[in-house]
Amino acid sequence: MSKVPPISAQAIREQYQALYSAGQVSLSRTYSDKFPLLEHLLKDEVRGKAVLDFGCGPGRLSLMLARYALEVHGVDYAGEGTELAAVLARAAGVENAVFDEGDLPWLSARKRRYDVIVLAGVLEHLEQPQEQLLGLARLLTPGGMLCVQTPSFANFRGDVYNTLGHLLDLPMTLTDLWQVTPGALAAAADAIGLRLGAVAGGHYRLAFLDGVLEDFRQRVPNAARDAGLGAGWNWERFFAWIAERVEQNRLLVDAWVAQGALKPVPQSPPLRARRPQGIDDGLWAGLEQYLTYDGWREPWYSDVSPVCYYGASAVYFFRKPGDAR
Question: 125 — phi, psi (to 5°)?
Fold first, then answer.
């Protein structure tokens, strides 16, 4: 894994605590377009099993997986997030999902075992990712699965992102500590005693198409400003070049779709949203939107090599040796 410009895990934690304590789940909703894909990939694996959603935040994925699992335990180090998740579970009528504030040492001390453990957008924020993966592997039952979803940069967006980062030292992200690669996770699998199996790619619109332009228009000028750079730069020429490349990339993406290497992400069934007692109008407006949001923007995923490695996100499936219970 490649280290990105330094920021502490504690600083990341404080950012999320501030968001959740204000009742803001919009950040999570913006990036929750990964949840329908994870639900599709995991629903058969979690059916009738005990699931840990580690780093669950406000719990949207936990509630989606609870439709299939025997039980889901959502854990996050931001207690404000798990408090929101418990409210959302009541609103959605989900009774087989529980949420706790906690970290890996807290989980390890409980000596609970899980059939499936999910880390969605978590590993890249951890200061010691391999040690965390090792600790989580010990919480798996024999034959259990660890599912890790992370950003991925082996694509057009990633190439531009890393060029700017390495050449100009732009702080392109304020929350990621690592760029996770397939090779790094394959090596980590041996170290933690798991077997890396399937890999799926997601977020191809963000990797190659108009998502790149949207992301860079928002991100790059701010990153340059934070680095004390950008005065006199021709931003519109830069963005015009990005837009031109996006149009060229459509040929590639269209070819992958035609070949069946990119597949449609199935629509996710809606969650129920009934307002619990004691929730004020302002908070409920945000929570209801988070629960009922269905504007998923990413239409494709891939489980075909090598295309599965080229999305802007990747999902890795690890298996623990032994017979599943």
Answer: -100, -5
Quick one: which of 98, 15, 16, 90 has its CA closest to 284?
A: 90
**According to the model, what pLDDT value does residue 32 have?**
66
**Count of beta carbons in the 10 Å neighbourhood of residue 314:** 25
Residues in the chain: 325
**Does pLDDT of 175 surpass 70?**
yes
d(CA 110, CA 75): 13
Please write the tens of the pLDDT for every residue from 263-286: 999 999 889 999 988 888 888 888
Task: Extract the tokens encoding 229.
Answer: 């750079």
Q: Domains of the chain, with CATH numbers?
A: 2-154+173-204+260-319 (3.40.50.150)
DSSP-assigned letter for residue 230: -
Q: What is the rounded distance in angstroms from the CA atom of residue 311 to the CA atom of residue 112?
A: 34
Element (H, E) at 101: strand 97-101
